[in-house]
Amino acid sequence: MSVGDYPRVRLAHVHSETSLELVVFSSTTTRYSLHPLPVRRPASGVVEDVVSCGSCGTTVKIRVFSPRLRWQLKLCWFSVFLIGVVIEAVAVNYQVVLDDQDKARALQYLLYIPGCIGLTAAIIGLIRFFTEDGVRLPSYLRDSRHRLRRR
Ligand SMILES: [Zn+2]
């Protein structure tokens, strides 16, 4: 599976973020500009490089994974998806079985916890499987002005 010599994701410089919070709804509007990441994927392993932001000129250290490592990361995220689906399916199955019996009502409600965990893991794993590009920025806590975006 060919992924190209350069990452598809781009460096996003965040200009502003505004949040709108209503009683049951919240929305965040982020204004950012995108800049390419001119770092060639290594043949194997991980390469660290420094890129300059086109908006503010700040240098940002990024790590770019080889195509093979990128594919392994995608498989890890797909594994998270599958594990989440199995946990959710087992939890729902036991809930249905317990629903036929009048006893063990508390256990039936406790099964919502692993069900929610499984569903969350499945959603996160699936999203990350499709969006993983094998590029990492330093910690979000250290630099909240720069992120990775696909478009
Ligand atoms: Zn910037």
Set out the fold topology.
Blueprint: E1 10-21, E2 26-35, E3 46-52, E4 59-65, H1 67-100, H2 105-110, H3 112-131, E5 135-136, E6 146-149
Antiparallel strand pairs: 1-2, 1-6, 3-4, 4-5
Helix pairs in contact: 1-3
The structure holds zinc ion (ZN).
Q: What's the overall geometry?
A: flat
Q: Summarize the helix and strand pattern as letters.
A: EEEEHHHEE
Helical fraction: 25-40%
What is the number of beta strands? Answer: 6
Question: What's this, in brief?
Answer:
The protein has one domain.
Structure report:
The chain crosses the membrane at residues 75-97, 109-130. Keywords: Membrane, Transmembrane, Transmembrane helix. This protein has 151 residues and is of the alpha+beta class. The protein has one domain. Helix content is 40%, strand content 28%. The protein has three helices and six strands. The chain has helices spanning 67-100, 105-110, 112-131; strands at residues 10-21, 26-35, 46-52, 59-65, 135-136, 146-149. Strands 2-1-6 form a three-stranded antiparallel beta sheet, with no helix packed on it. A three-stranded antiparallel beta sheet has the order 3-4-5. The protein starts with 9 loop residues before the first strand and ends with a strand. The mean pLDDT is 91. Zinc ion binds next to loops.
